[in-house]
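Lecture notes, unit on binding sites. The following record was shown on slide 14. It pairs a sequence with adenosine-5'-diphosphate.
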Amino acid sequence: MSDTVESVIVAIDGPSGTGKSSTSRAVAAALGLSYLDTGAQYRAITWWMISNGVDVQDPAAIATAAAKPAIVSGTDPANPTITVDGVDVTGPIRTPEVTSKVSAVSAVPEVRARITELQRSIASSAATGIVVEGRDIGTTVLPDADLKIFLTASPEARAARRSGELKGTDVAATKEALVKRDAADSSRKTSPLAKADDAVEVDTTDLTLEQVIECVVTLVEERRCATENTENTEKPAAR
Ligand SMILES: Nc1ncnc2c1ncn2[C@@H]1O[C@H](COP(=O)(O)OP(=O)(O)O)[C@@H](O)[C@H]1O
Ligand SMILES: Nc1ccn([C@H]2C[C@H](O)[C@@H](COP(=O)(O)OP(=O)(O)O)O2)c(=O)n1
């Protein structure tokens, strides 16, 4: 085995509440990789549109404003950060208002083009590699990723997890909102939520978070070994 570890790009996609963020952060931390939450970037641009009075039901207005906010993502899995025009928006991007409007904003092609370019630039500058999580990472943003994972879970399990986070919220209402957002994200024209043909699907409904993390860490390590073996067999034999 070679001493130098190759940089590795991991794409993790799936609907809301399947465990993308928790799994991606833990896998990145365990393997010494960077971490990027692309949903936070779409939430950040949505927060900016709301804060600046842009009508989120007006795709032309959103398209015109799409280039204005400066969005910066910190990629340390121990402390992921997100700022808009220098303002820390970690808390504000998780409000119910942003959650209910993010699908409309993120469906606008000009928004996707801008955020996709940002994501590719962050991924290409990650020295040891990166775990990038979202909805279209394996299909559109990083189609050449070394490993693609598509997480799924039943709507009931996902709603129970989300209501557990947002204390006091009704599980049935959470499930309804979540299914509605999935439908909007899956049916938009530009890079919808979808499983890449070469992604490994992991159903997390009956798995603990620890089991999912272990499964993905194993898949990354297997992929790294496979890549190293291919490189070794391609090299001419040492004399
Ligand atoms: N396999 C699992 N079993 C139980 N709870 C989980 C599991 N995976 C994630 N969770 C919990 O569900 C919630 C949503 O997870 P998150 O990682 O934010 O999902 P996503 O990024 O896909 O929306 C979090 O509170 C997380 O701790
Ligand atoms: N790569 C991505 C990531 C997120 N989005 C959009 C669609 C999602 O409903 C929102 C919010 O994503 P986020 O991952 O924060 O969603 P959850 O809070 O985990 O449910 O952003 C997207 O269009 N493409």
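Take-home: The mean pLDDT is 93.
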